[in-house]
Specification:
The chain has one domain. The chain is about 10% helix and about 50% strand. The strands form three sheets. Strands 1, 2, 3, 6, 9, 10, 11 and 12 form an eight-stranded antiparallel sheet that branches. A two-stranded antiparallel sheet has the order 4-5. Strands 7-8 form a two-stranded antiparallel sheet. The chain starts with a strand and ends in a 5-residue tail after the last helix.
Length: about 190
């Protein structure tokens, strides 16, 4: 299996029931997918007895996701970071703003035995943080700049933190991904 592409970022506002059942307010697109990096931190505990390893735990602890998008429009950034936008389109950042939890998914294009496949990777619970900003003047040649935003990946109260499924067509993958964000997913 060779990963050869990244498309179709989708996110939705998370509402989590006490038992960990997630629901989302519909699929939204934050911009074109430029890059995505998911770094998972696992627990690492070992118990030794009688001079040997008798138990170990390498379970999920948390994670970090960094997405690169082509557009940092105020509506998307306000959604992801908990800021307010006026009817005139002005986004105000306030020190007391709290970013909401969202579900975040993407589609990875793969080639398996010469055939394209489309894998949906979905994170159930992510909270994004204010991104740093770096801008450059145009010099002798033009360089495109994009926005990267980083979030913390957490597990739901029921322990689920991610789901993945592979499809034969991109259309099937998009339908599945958007379905996760529009209804209560089967867990």
């Amino acid at each position: 299996m060779a990963r050869i592409g990244l498309t179709n970022f989708r996110y939705g506002m998370l509402t989590e029931a006490e038992d960990g059942t997630p629901s989302y307010g519909g699929a939204k697109t934050p911009g074109h997918a430029i890059s995505c990096s998911v770094d998972i931190t696992n627990n690492d505990a070992k118990l030794y007895g009688d001079d040997t390893l008798i138990e170990s735990d390498t379970s999920f602890n948390n994670g970090t996701v960094t997405i690169g998008i082509d557009e940092d429009d105020v509506t998307t950034m306000a959604d992801l970071l908990g800021h307010n936008v006026t009817t005139e389109g002005v986004m105000t950042r306030n020190a007391n703003d709290a970013a909401p939890y969202v579900g975040l998914g993407r589609i990875i294009t793969k080639m398996v035995a010469g055939v394209y496949k489309y894998k949906v990777e979905f994170l159930y619970k992510v909270k994004f943080a204010e991104p740093s900003q770096e801008d450059n003047t145009k010099g002798d040649s033009v360089e495109f700049g994009t926005t990267e935003i980083e979030g913390t990946v957490a597990a739901l109260a029921n322990g689920n933190w991610s789901v993945a499924k592979t499809f034969s067509t991109r259309a099937e993958a998009v339908t599945y991904l958007e379905g996760l964000l529009g209804t209560v997913p089967s867990i």
